[in-house]
């Protein structure tokens, strides 16, 4: 009888302990952000170059008038522009996002960002993110012939744009914005070893970060994949480098809840010539079912 009572007592103790542990795991270790933060929808538009020449307009080039119409529509629909660092502050609990955020991004760092987009954004009180290719910036910061059809931003222009608060600059690699049979952007080529690939991307991205620190006073916080091309080794290295976000090219409206992992490979819509952005903005504001 005594042994039976002892077994019953031990069973009750064990069950009580398990219930206590489960209660602790259920209520005390659940991420706070998942409980207290509502989701925010974030459309991101991806621009490349702006040109005043009708003959150049196409998949990656739009006119100044088209960009200004975009800004006007964005403003009329009540959207407010945010930058990558705004998103990071949101996930870290040190900042908030507006009710209807939108991000305008410019890839490659063409000089048209300075000549056309910069004054239009200032006129509408908006901000944008420009992802620059370090080797191009270095080239056009030197004594070289420039032309608005192909020139890229130089460091002086970037400093002015950053100090104005209108533009934020991010890392688009130092010299891996290339597309060939040998290599697509930052992806490993078929002819190099893993060791060679790791060395290449580490040196390239680190060098671009050093140039940001030297010329703009701070390293980039986001990596923008050239051509949207990415593999698992590169994903891991982006995390190792301390980047808090990355920009991809998959076309989708982003949904953010405050989880830092949601800032990697953010979706973006490529803004081509004669493209209507209104359906994207309407989709971002549509009530969720």
Q: Which characteristics define this entry?
A:
6-stranded parallel sheet; single chain; 289 residues; two-stranded antiparallel ribbon; 12 strands
Percent helix = 40-55%
Radius of gyration: 24 Å
Largest sheet: 6 strands, parallel
Number of helices: 10
**SS strand fraction:** 5-15%
Shape: globular
* Weakly predicted, low-confidence segments: 1-36
Structural class: alpha/beta
User: What is the first-to-last residue Cα distance?
Assistant: 61 Å
Strand-and-helix sequence, N→C? HHEEEEHEHEHEHHEHEHEEEH
Number of strands: 12
Mean pLDDT: 87
Overview of this structure, please?
Strand 9, helix 9 and strand 10 form a beta-alpha-beta unit. This protein is an alpha/beta fold. The chain contains ten helices and twelve strands. The radius of gyration is 24 Å and the shape is globular. Strands 2, 5, 6, 7, 8 and 12 form a six-stranded parallel β-sheet that branches.
């Amino acid at each position: 009888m005594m042994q039976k009572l002892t077994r019953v007592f031990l069973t009750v103790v064990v069950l009580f302990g398990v219930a206590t542990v489960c209660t602790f795991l259920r209520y005390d270790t659940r991420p706070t952000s998942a409980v207290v933060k509502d989701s925010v929808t974030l459309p991101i538009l991806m621009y490349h170059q702006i040109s005043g020449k009708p003959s150049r307009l196409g998949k990656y080039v739009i006119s100044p008038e088209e960009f200004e119409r975009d800004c006007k529509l964005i403003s009329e629909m009540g959207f407010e522009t945010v930058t990558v660092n705004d998103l990071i502050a949101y996930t870290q609990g040190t900042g908030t996002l507006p009710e209807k955020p939108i991000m305008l991004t410019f890839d490659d760092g063409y000089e048209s960002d300075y000549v056309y987009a910069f004054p239009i954004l200032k006129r509408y009180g908006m901000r944008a993110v420009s992802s620059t290719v370090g080797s191009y910036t270095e080239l056009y910061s030197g004594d070289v012939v420039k032309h608005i059809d192909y020139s890229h931003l130089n460091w002086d222009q970037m400093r002015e744009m950053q100090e104005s608060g209108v533009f934020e600059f991010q890392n688009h690699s130092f010299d891996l914005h290339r597309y060939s049979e040998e290599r697509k952007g930052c992806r490993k080529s078929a002819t190099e070893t893993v060791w060679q690939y790791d060395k290449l991307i580490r040196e390239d991205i680190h060098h671009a970060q050093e140039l940001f620190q030297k010329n703009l006073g701070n390293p980039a916080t986001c990596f923008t994949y050239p051509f949207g091309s990415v593999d698992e080794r590169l994903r891991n290295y982006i995390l190792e480098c301390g980047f808090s976000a990355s920009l991809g090219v998959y076309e989708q409206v982003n949904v953010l809840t405050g989880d830092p992992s949601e800032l990697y490979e953010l979706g973006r819509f490529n803004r081509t010539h004669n493209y209507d952005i209104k359906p994207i903005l309407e989709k971002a504001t549509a009530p969720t079912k």
